[in-house]
Known about the structure:
171 residues, alpha+beta, 5 helices
Amino acid sequence: xxxxxxxxxxxxSNVGDRQAHLCLALERLARRGVxxxxxxxxxxxxxxxxxGEERPAYLNAVxxxxxxxxxxxxxDVIAQVERLGGRDRPTRHAPRTIDIxxxxxxxxxxxxxxxxxxxxxxxQRAFVLLPLAxxxxxxxxxxxxxxxxxxxxxxxxxxxxxxxxxPSARP
Length: 171
């Protein structure tokens, strides 16, 4: 009997109908064994990339998901959902219809070429920490801080992030 674990994923889009891309990605993940049990509000952030580049703003969210899959299997599902969503990777900071990252999977710790858990840059991103604080306020990150505590520190607290409500029912 497989054991269900809670994982946390971040989703972002800065191309086309950003909200529709996020909703469709959540539906596709659920059909592949990565089932959302809680989804944050939407958060809008400016594109992070090369200075002077004009790019559309991102719409971001974090979901707590229930899954029986291993971390590598979740990563495979994420890659498949990104491809189905039209994700193209011409350059590192290129605009994206959908961008999905696996942040945490229970207490799993991995460090590899393909996957590192917990996500190594999660603690540097207000657009991850603020929605993560919504869906898992008591979660302790590596280092012992909650997501809200981590979001209130240093350069993370200075990042411009705007919270938005889902225009319709949350996925």
